[in-house]
Amino acid sequence: MTGGARSRRVLLLLLLVGVAARAASGGGIDGLLPNGNFEQGPDKSQMNGTRVMSPNSIPNWVISGFVEYIGSGQKQNDMILPVPEGPYAVRLGNDATIRQQLSVTRKAYYSITFCAARTCARAERINVSVGPESGVLPVQTVYTSSGWDSYSFAFKARHTTVWLAIHNPGLEDDPACGPLIDSVAIKTLDPPRREKGNMLRNGDFEEGPFIFPDTAWGVLVPPMDEDDVSPLPGWMVMSGTKSVKYVDAAHHAVPRGARAVELVAGREAALVQEVPTTPGRWYALSFSVGDAGNGCAASEAMMTVEAYAGREAARVPYASRGSGGRTRGGLEFAAVANVTRVVFQSYNHHMKRDGTLCGPVVDDVSLVAVRKRAGRRLLL
């Protein structure tokens, strides 16, 4: 065997070992599901107008209830139904469900990202489930001028094959009324551990749900119960119906790294992480506050992030011009329990000129134990 052939064989072997190791770890699943953008549609013989009549007529999906196959620019009365990517999407009318079976790695964590838009129902919401994991995503609030938002949902795989279901539980007088769905993707999550120098997990927000590279509006992380699997590992969103937005450096100004969180709902949503602490011991929390460079300018009031930990609180203001930038803030606190909640929320509501909600960005969050109080706390 020649030296060149031997080198190519060794290289091929190393590549195969790397692929096998990645597959064994549950990685490698990132991007659109098969026919996740619904570009492969039903035959006309399987449709009644726009309604899809056969359960298996949309390739790779199983449907039930009132499901429509919608073309971009299609009208309903005087309303145009836009499609965010490609020429087609589906609409989930009364009690409608779309399902797809996924091959996953048992005990691995995954996030689902999909685009959704309201149409004509009064109180639209979407139920997402994978096996026993399920959640209700409210879609009443629209966060983009286009009307389309990206939503995220996470689960831990109980088996090697699972069913993803997206369901509209609504029952309207017009059975077609319901949300439009497009671009369904999956990502393997690698939940980060606490590392030396930071007691928080995922304090830089680098691990999170899939962000579509051709969309500039980020991904909403919806409110969740405390026992839910979070699409933003380490963090929970506490709210009734509002979300926070996960943004990327490709389309936004990010204080550090490639990802950050935009607090788009004022005091109506809080970003929370619980961390083990020792009662009576002092800790220092520090973080960056900025704007996403998306035109969210604080014209009348400063963008302000409120932070809470133990019995202490701080307000960190930032004079935003909507073009990016950051400041550093923090607080010190004495723990009063074995577990302390670190909480962030926007002090005010903010809107861009097009009327869509926006807010301050939080990033690069660090928590460390300190020997004594240093007196650098930012007071309310």
TrEMBL record:
Source species: Digitaria exilis
Official protein name in the record: DUF642 domain-containing protein
SUPFAM superfamilies: Galactose-binding domain-like (SSF49785)
Domain of life where this protein originates: Eukaryota
Domain spans labelled DUF642: 31-187, 199-367
UniProt keyword list: Cell wall, Glycoprotein, Secreted, Signal
Residues forming coiled coils: none
Signal peptide region: 1-26
Location in or out of the cell: Secreted, Cell wall
Pfam families in alphabetical order: DUF642
Record-linked Gene3D superfamilies: Galactose-binding domain-like
